[in-house]
Amino acid sequence: MSDYGHPLTFGSFLTPGNADPTRPVGLAMLSEQVGLDLVTFQDHPYQPAFLDTWTLLSFVAARTERVRLSANVTNLPLRPPAVLARSVASLDLLSDGRMELGLGAGAFWDAIEAMGGRRLSPGQGVRALEEAIEIIRQIWAVDAPGGVRVPGEFHRAVGAKRGPAPAHDVGIWLGAYKPRMLALTGRRADGWLPSLAYLQPGDLARGNAVIDEAATDAGRSPADVRRLLNVNGRFAATGRGPLNGPAEQWAEELADLALTEGISTFILASDDPDDLRRFAAEVAPATRELVATERADPPTGAPADRTRTEADQTRATTDTTGDTRRGATSAGPTGRPAAVGAATFAVVPTPDDGVRRSAVRVWDEAARPAGPTPDPQRTYTAHDQAGAQHLIDVHDGLRAELAQIHDLIEQVAAGLIDVGAARSHINTMTMRQNKWTLGTYCESYCRVVTTHHTIEDRSLFPHLRRADPRLAPVIDRLEEEHHAIHDVLEGVDRALVAFVATPDGMADLRAAVDLLSDTLLSHLSYEERELVEPIARLGVH
What we know:
two-stranded antiparallel sheet
């Protein structure tokens, strides 16, 4: 069992089909809009039904601003490593540090040979890939003396000039399955990128063991190698098998892969826009919450490798490729410290500012019970306070997304929404399409809130109630408010239906979202006020 402590990221794995060239571009832009971290494309240069992946990546980089990009994985036999190194560095510079490099040793050798590539045996492919990695890293090492010299058997460099250097430390991720490729991953790569569909039970654990041993033998930490995974499945109302069921099931299964197999990047292989939206809006935040809760309070007797060292925790706060250029710190989303040393309680709940947008009142805030008064002499470890801070961090994410809903509504009302940025494969931009984009975002947000409340009701609240019966009145009230918020969410859903169906539904939609803001923000502040200290004192289960 391995958890390398990396922060979780989520991405899309798209087909670069050329029947409608705008479709993969639109899906990439949608991936960014819904909040995914990474967009990847297959790379099969011999496939005439596909766009050239490198050309597509360049085009997508120009149409996006935040999301990271990579081939999944680059077909090395048809892309000379010295040229590839300069291409990656150039696009990384042009995209402000958003390129990563997935690499594969090659497959479909008949097609590769037909395109002029050299057919290699499996062993030759591994040696060729290691030579290519050396050339690529030397090209990027602009401060090293002399030219690039790699006297390889399959790839050679005999004094090539170095540069350009990429804008950030580009990660090299290997699509590896066999022992020699896995060992190479441990020695030289920054990430392991297999596909779940190609793995048998136990393959992830066996692959991690080979990578970890090779990394250690090479003087590296196993945590230097990020574990990524291409996944595919189906969303359904009820569970029908692995990754075939509701978003909550997906989140539980992905969280288990993160905590037991060390996977920290999940890449969804789907060209269905609705799948991408649900993956980003429901699966990703719920998975992050489950993993963060488990990491904050690991089970008794957990293996040693589930406990991160101080260096691992520092690494986890940097960019996922190890790039600290963007100024990552150990602070939470609002800048509050994520943990403090053993001392008096220092986690600050988010205060209720008292601002109300709606004249409707769902509950009597003055009737809310209070929990027990904290012991002023008690001290709390960094671990204790990290669990309490996590509740605030999760709530901060809900607050930020709520603010985005208000912003989207105002943009739609002003006619400023750029539908092409969200759904560029649709050429006709109408007000109805603007409404549809907004409606999808709001609907997804409502599901995220519901998922968060379900996790609390089933896990956090029962534990706190058992551990300190004095909290029972507070927990009863919080559960009642969850039900009330559910009713408010249904009101938003009804307003969305009316908004999409009628030309004058904006006022009702604004009113419904204003009421959601009043109830949810008030509830989150009350919950933090009453529970952050008990969570630190009693732990999270």
